[in-house]
């Protein structure tokens, strides 16, 4: 073989092997996996999922492929969590609220007004509290890989702007199937209606419910402006998004493959959070252009809303345990 041909062949081999640097190629099997989640693919969570898929593909040298099933194609969050536990689905991305039924400590994220900004949120989910919560999933036949960001939750409704508890009183508001959210909005005088997400748009359109609460990205990609007039920037809770793998699958993976998934998720989460935060300002402008009215309660009004929710905060802090709540508060304080 001519020298130039030998060099070209060697270069081609090196390029193919490059993604496997640091990994033993023999420890990586050909796999095609199912990754299901509830948001649309265009949402920052969907973009993060695609980044995760691409990184796994790259780090495995193309051996591990993941097919994404966005927009509840494989079922609701509760259904896909169950399917992943059973090994029917390989990987699931879900908001943390439905996980509370499996691991009660996940309700720490649902405590009203626990977090004030993204820096505090990163400190909580990436620090000891978040990592301990991911570890707790193993007892439930799940392996927690990392946390993406869903974002701070805000209230939309078809009646009027919300600034005070009196504005919430009497509203029929859809909440996640999670006791903290149900109790919190009941405390404000609302009729809290737990409902699976796929049913929400139709319920808002028909007037069966008046309101719902979600981060801006969810409001936008689901076109809630078509059925809701008002967005109130309450930021009453921060919603992470857990990426979890079936433990049945995890236990079949080699250490090399396990590392690929962990490393890829932790890289993808940083990208996903950047996308999420960059898009919020654009989304707010677009929602306004689509005719939604957006209002921001004053700090004093938000403090009043938080004060109204103190009985709920106290109740679930006790359920969660003083140690966990203190750990969370310490993590948040350290991020200042």
Automatic annotation (TrEMBL):
Signal peptide (from-to): 1-24
Keyword field contains Signal: yes
CDD domains: PBP2_TRAP_YiaO_like (cd13679)
Recorded coiled-coil stretches: none
Domain of life assignment: Bacteria
One cellular component term from this protein's GO annotations in UniProt: outer membrane-bounded periplasmic space
GO molecular function: carbohydrate binding
Pfam families recorded: DctP
Listed InterPro entries: DctP_fam (IPR018389), TRAP_DctP (IPR004682), TRAP_DctP_sf (IPR038404)
GO biological processes: transmembrane transport
Listed Gene3D superfamilies: Bacterial extracellular solute-binding protein, family 7
Signal in keyword set: yes
Keyword set, alphabetical order: Signal
Full protein name: TRAP dicarboxylate transporter, DctP subunit
Species per Swiss-Prot/TrEMBL record: Ancylobacter novellus (strain ATCC 8093 / DSM 506 / JCM 20403 / CCM 1077 / IAM 12100 / NBRC 12443 / NCIMB 10456)
Lineage: Bacteria, Pseudomonadati, Pseudomonadota, Alphaproteobacteria, Hyphomicrobiales
